[in-house]
Amino acid sequence: MSMYVDCIIKNATMYQWPTEQPQIVDVAIKNDVIVAVGDCRQFEAQQNYDATGLVLAPGFIDVHTHDDLEVFRSPHMLSKISQGVTTVIAGNCGISAAPYHQASSPVDPINLLGTKEQLIYPELADYKRAFALSAPSVNLAMLVGHTSLRAQVVADLSQPANADEIAQMKALLSKAMEQGALGLSSGLAYHNAKGSSIDEVNALAEIIEPFGGIYTTHLRTEFHGILDAMDEAFATAQYAAVPLVISHIKCAGKENWGRAPEVLSHLEKQREHQNIGCDCYPYAASSSTLDLNQVTPETDIFITWSESHPEMAQQNLQEVAAKWGVPLIDAAKKLQPAGAVYHCMLEDDVKQFLSYEHSMIGSDGLPCDPHPHPRLWGTFPRVLGHYSKTEQTLPLALAIHKMTALPAKQFKLEKRGQIKVGNFADLVLFDPTTVCDQATYSQPHLPAIGIERVWVNGKLSYVGDADLTSVVDYGRAGRFLNRTSKNN
Ligand code: ZN
Ligand code: CU
Question: Does 155 share its domain with 112?
Answer without folding.
Answer: yes
